[in-house]
Amino acid sequence: MIKGTFTRNQAGLISEFTLTGHAEAGPYGSDIVCAAVSALAISTINSLDALAGVIPNVETNDDEGGYLQVALKEDNSMTQEQMNISQILLEHLLLGLQSIEIDYLDFIEVQTNSKS
C-alpha cells in the first residue's frame, strides 16, 4: 500500500509530503495506481522548480519499499508569490492523491498532519 502523508505548518500551509510503499495493484509495469501517484508526485516536484522557482529538499530510497520525501525550505527565502504557487501545486497534489484514494482504497491511504 502507498501511504501519503502531508504536513501542514502552523499557518495551515503544506510544508512537506512523504510517499512510502508500493500500491501492488497490478504486475510490475502495469500498476495504474503506482503510475498515477508517481506521475503526480514527479510533476509536482518539476512544477515547483519550473513554475514557482522553488527547489525543495527531496529524499528518495527505492531500496526500502519506495520512499519519497519532499519538503519546502523553511528559511524564509521564498517570496510570497513563490509560496502561493507552491501551495497551489501542493494542494493540487493532495487533491489528486485523495481522488485516487476514493477509487483505490485498498492501495493508497492519504492523511494530513499538523506541525506543532
Percentage beta strand: 25-35%
Contiguous runs where pLDDT drops below 50 for at least 5 residues: none
* Class of secondary structure makeup: alpha+beta
The overall number of domains is 1
Trace the largest sheet across and list its strands: 3-4-2-1-5
In total, the number of strands is 5
The CATH superfamily is identified as: Cysteine protease Prp
Average pLDDT metric: 94
CATH topology: Alpha-Beta Plaits
Instruction: Give the % helix.
Output: 25-40%
Tell me the name of the CATH class: Alpha Beta
CATH architecture, please? 2-Layer Sandwich
Largest sheet: 5 strands, mixed
Estimated radius of gyration:
14 Å
Q: Could you spell the SSE succession in H and E letters?
A: EEHEEHE
How would you portray this structure in words?
- It holds the Pfam family Peptidase_Prp.
- This is Ribosomal processing cysteine protease Prp.
- The protein is of the alpha+beta class.
- It has one domain: 2-Layer Sandwich (Alpha-Beta Plaits).
- The chain is 39% helix and 26% strand.
- The chain is built from two helices and five strands, in the order E-E-H-E-E-H-E.
- It has helices at 32-52, 80-103, and strands at 2-8, 14-20, 57-60, 67-71, 108-114.
- The protein has a five-stranded mixed sheet with strand order 3-4-2-1-5, with helices on one face.
- Helix 1 packs antiparallel against helix 2 (80-103).
- The longest helix is centred in the last third of the chain and has 24 residues, at 80-103.
- The chain is globular.
- The two termini are 27 Å apart.
